[in-house]
Specification:
about 210 residues, alpha+beta, 2 domains, eight-stranded antiparallel sheet, four-stranded antiparallel sheet, 3 helices
Length: about 210
Amino acid sequence: MRAEATEDQPAVPPTEPGTRTDLRSELDHQRDVVIHRLNVWKDELVAWFKTLASAAVYATLIVTFGFQVARVEGQSMAPTLEDQDRLIVNKLVYRMGEPRRGDIVMLYYPINPDKSFVKRVIGEEGDEVQIVDGQVYVNGAPIPDDFVPEEYRSHDDWGPERIPDGYYFVMGDHRNNSSDSRHWKFVPKKYIIGKVQLRWWPIPHARVF
Protein backbone atom coordinates (compact mmCIF):
# COMPACT_ATOMS: atom_id res chain seq x y z
CA MET A 1 0.00 0.00 0.00
CA ARG A 2 1.06 3.51 -0.70
CA ALA A 3 0.69 5.92 2.06
CA GLU A 4 -0.46 9.42 1.05
CA ALA A 5 1.03 12.33 2.83
CA THR A 6 -1.39 14.99 4.24
CA GLU A 7 -0.69 18.41 5.73
CA ASP A 8 -1.38 18.86 9.38
CA GLN A 9 -4.47 21.17 9.84
CA PRO A 10 -4.39 23.70 12.65
CA ALA A 11 -6.55 22.81 15.47
CA VAL A 12 -9.77 24.92 15.73
CA PRO A 13 -10.38 25.88 19.28
CA PRO A 14 -13.81 25.06 20.48
CA THR A 15 -16.21 28.00 20.85
CA GLU A 16 -16.55 28.91 24.42
CA PRO A 17 -20.14 29.22 25.50
CA GLY A 18 -19.63 32.74 26.95
CA THR A 19 -18.05 34.38 23.85
CA ARG A 20 -21.26 35.10 21.91
CA THR A 21 -22.96 36.36 25.02
CA ASP A 22 -20.11 38.80 25.74
CA LEU A 23 -20.20 40.11 22.13
CA ARG A 24 -23.93 40.60 22.29
CA SER A 25 -23.60 42.43 25.59
CA GLU A 26 -20.93 44.73 24.15
CA LEU A 27 -23.10 45.52 21.11
CA ASP A 28 -26.08 46.20 23.33
CA HIS A 29 -23.95 48.52 25.48
CA GLN A 30 -22.69 50.46 22.46
CA ARG A 31 -26.25 50.75 21.13
CA ASP A 32 -27.41 52.11 24.49
CA VAL A 33 -24.56 54.64 24.48
CA VAL A 34 -25.46 55.83 20.98
CA ILE A 35 -29.16 56.10 21.86
CA HIS A 36 -28.30 58.04 25.02
CA ARG A 37 -26.12 60.46 23.08
CA LEU A 38 -28.80 60.94 20.44
CA ASN A 39 -31.34 61.69 23.15
CA VAL A 40 -28.97 64.20 24.75
CA TRP A 41 -28.39 65.90 21.39
CA LYS A 42 -32.12 65.90 20.72
CA ASP A 43 -32.82 67.52 24.10
CA GLU A 44 -30.12 70.13 23.45
CA LEU A 45 -31.52 70.90 19.99
CA VAL A 46 -35.01 71.26 21.44
CA ALA A 47 -33.67 73.56 24.16
CA TRP A 48 -31.82 75.66 21.55
CA PHE A 49 -34.93 75.82 19.38
CA LYS A 50 -37.02 76.99 22.35
CA THR A 51 -34.41 79.63 23.20
CA LEU A 52 -34.25 80.90 19.62
CA ALA A 53 -38.04 80.90 19.33
CA SER A 54 -38.36 82.82 22.60
CA ALA A 55 -35.69 85.31 21.48
CA ALA A 56 -37.53 85.81 18.19
CA VAL A 57 -40.79 86.44 20.03
CA TYR A 58 -39.15 88.86 22.46
CA ALA A 59 -37.37 90.65 19.61
CA THR A 60 -40.66 90.98 17.74
CA LEU A 61 -42.38 92.37 20.82
CA ILE A 62 -39.52 94.79 21.49
CA VAL A 63 -39.47 96.03 17.89
CA THR A 64 -43.25 96.22 17.70
CA PHE A 65 -43.97 97.81 21.05
CA GLY A 66 -40.68 98.90 22.60
CA PHE A 67 -37.67 99.96 20.57
CA GLN A 68 -36.74 100.22 16.92
CA VAL A 69 -33.44 100.50 15.10
CA ALA A 70 -33.45 103.27 12.48
CA ARG A 71 -31.03 104.82 10.01
CA VAL A 72 -30.79 108.49 9.06
CA GLU A 73 -31.04 109.17 5.36
CA GLY A 74 -30.19 112.68 4.27
CA GLN A 75 -28.91 115.85 5.93
CA SER A 76 -32.13 117.46 7.18
CA MET A 77 -31.12 116.97 10.85
CA ALA A 78 -27.47 117.98 10.43
CA PRO A 79 -25.33 118.75 12.31
CA THR A 80 -27.15 117.00 15.19
CA LEU A 81 -27.59 113.84 13.11
CA GLU A 82 -25.67 113.00 9.95
CA ASP A 83 -26.55 110.88 6.94
CA GLN A 84 -26.33 107.12 7.70
CA ASP A 85 -26.23 107.57 11.49
CA ARG A 86 -27.80 104.56 13.27
CA LEU A 87 -30.38 105.28 15.95
CA ILE A 88 -32.39 103.56 18.67
CA VAL A 89 -35.96 104.86 18.76
CA ASN A 90 -37.96 104.50 21.99
CA LYS A 91 -41.53 103.62 20.99
CA LEU A 92 -42.79 103.21 24.57
CA VAL A 93 -42.14 106.71 25.84
CA TYR A 94 -45.09 108.32 24.07
CA ARG A 95 -47.46 105.57 25.15
CA MET A 96 -46.91 106.85 28.68
CA GLY A 97 -46.41 110.55 27.95
CA GLU A 98 -46.53 113.26 25.31
CA PRO A 99 -43.90 114.59 22.90
CA ARG A 100 -42.21 117.72 24.23
CA ARG A 101 -40.54 120.68 22.57
CA GLY A 102 -36.98 119.82 21.72
CA ASP A 103 -37.58 116.07 21.43
CA ILE A 104 -36.03 114.47 18.35
CA VAL A 105 -38.64 112.10 16.99
CA MET A 106 -39.15 109.55 14.25
CA LEU A 107 -42.45 110.04 12.42
CA TYR A 108 -44.44 108.93 9.42
CA TYR A 109 -44.43 111.46 6.59
CA PRO A 110 -47.98 112.89 6.71
CA ILE A 111 -48.26 113.12 2.91
CA ASN A 112 -46.98 109.55 2.35
CA PRO A 113 -47.04 107.44 5.54
CA ASP A 114 -45.00 104.72 3.81
CA LYS A 115 -41.99 106.98 4.41
CA SER A 116 -40.54 107.98 7.78
CA PHE A 117 -38.60 111.09 8.79
CA VAL A 118 -36.55 112.22 11.78
CA LYS A 119 -37.32 115.76 12.98
CA ARG A 120 -37.30 117.94 16.11
CA VAL A 121 -40.54 118.89 17.89
CA ILE A 122 -40.86 122.68 17.84
CA GLY A 123 -44.45 123.21 18.95
CA GLU A 124 -46.96 121.17 20.93
CA GLU A 125 -50.73 121.06 20.59
CA GLY A 126 -52.25 124.44 21.42
CA ASP A 127 -49.02 126.38 20.80
CA GLU A 128 -48.92 129.30 18.39
CA VAL A 129 -45.95 129.09 16.03
CA GLN A 130 -44.51 131.91 13.94
CA ILE A 131 -41.28 132.24 11.97
CA VAL A 132 -39.85 135.65 11.16
CA ASP A 133 -36.71 135.79 9.02
CA GLY A 134 -35.81 132.29 10.16
CA GLN A 135 -36.27 132.96 13.88
CA VAL A 136 -38.88 130.63 15.38
CA TYR A 137 -41.35 132.00 17.95
CA VAL A 138 -43.59 129.82 20.08
CA ASN A 139 -46.39 131.64 21.89
CA GLY A 140 -44.67 134.93 21.09
CA ALA A 141 -41.26 133.97 22.57
CA PRO A 142 -38.16 133.08 20.51
CA ILE A 143 -37.10 129.49 21.12
CA PRO A 144 -33.45 128.66 21.88
CA ASP A 145 -31.80 127.35 18.71
CA ASP A 146 -28.08 127.48 19.46
CA PHE A 147 -27.86 123.93 18.05
CA VAL A 148 -28.39 125.41 14.57
CA PRO A 149 -25.12 126.79 13.10
CA GLU A 150 -25.31 130.04 11.18
CA GLU A 151 -24.75 128.38 7.81
CA TYR A 152 -27.69 126.02 8.49
CA ARG A 153 -30.19 128.79 9.25
CA SER A 154 -32.99 129.86 6.95
CA HIS A 155 -34.54 133.30 6.47
CA ASP A 156 -38.11 132.34 5.73
CA ASP A 157 -41.37 133.59 7.24
CA TRP A 158 -44.27 131.41 8.34
CA GLY A 159 -47.49 131.85 10.32
CA PRO A 160 -48.53 132.65 12.89
CA GLU A 161 -50.70 129.56 13.25
CA ARG A 162 -52.06 127.72 16.27
CA ILE A 163 -51.43 123.97 16.44
CA PRO A 164 -54.66 121.94 16.69
CA ASP A 165 -55.21 119.46 19.51
CA GLY A 166 -53.51 116.14 18.82
CA TYR A 167 -50.96 117.67 16.41
CA TYR A 168 -47.34 118.85 16.54
CA PHE A 169 -45.09 121.22 14.59
CA VAL A 170 -41.71 119.74 13.64
CA MET A 171 -38.60 121.01 11.88
CA GLY A 172 -35.22 119.71 10.81
CA ASP A 173 -32.13 121.22 12.41
CA HIS A 174 -30.74 121.93 8.94
CA ARG A 175 -33.28 124.72 8.52
CA ASN A 176 -32.39 125.60 4.93
CA ASN A 177 -32.37 121.95 3.79
CA SER A 178 -35.36 120.30 5.43
CA SER A 179 -38.86 119.29 4.37
CA ASP A 180 -40.95 119.76 7.51
CA SER A 181 -44.03 121.41 9.03
CA ARG A 182 -43.26 124.65 7.22
CA HIS A 183 -44.13 122.80 4.02
CA TRP A 184 -46.68 120.14 5.04
CA LYS A 185 -47.97 121.67 8.26
CA PHE A 186 -48.77 119.71 11.39
CA VAL A 187 -48.11 116.06 12.34
CA PRO A 188 -50.81 114.04 14.12
CA LYS A 189 -49.58 112.33 17.27
CA LYS A 190 -50.57 108.93 15.85
CA TYR A 191 -47.90 109.47 13.18
CA ILE A 192 -45.12 109.97 15.74
CA ILE A 193 -43.39 106.58 16.00
CA GLY A 194 -41.17 107.35 18.98
CA LYS A 195 -38.39 109.41 20.50
CA VAL A 196 -34.82 109.13 19.24
CA GLN A 197 -33.08 107.89 22.36
CA LEU A 198 -29.60 106.97 21.21
CA ARG A 199 -27.19 107.34 18.30
CA TRP A 200 -25.12 104.17 18.48
CA TRP A 201 -23.27 104.43 15.16
CA PRO A 202 -20.71 105.64 14.36
CA ILE A 203 -19.41 104.51 17.73
CA PRO A 204 -17.02 107.49 18.24
CA HIS A 205 -20.07 109.79 17.95
CA ALA A 206 -22.44 107.71 20.08
CA ARG A 207 -24.77 109.93 22.07
CA VAL A 208 -27.87 109.73 24.25
CA PHE A 209 -30.61 112.28 23.52
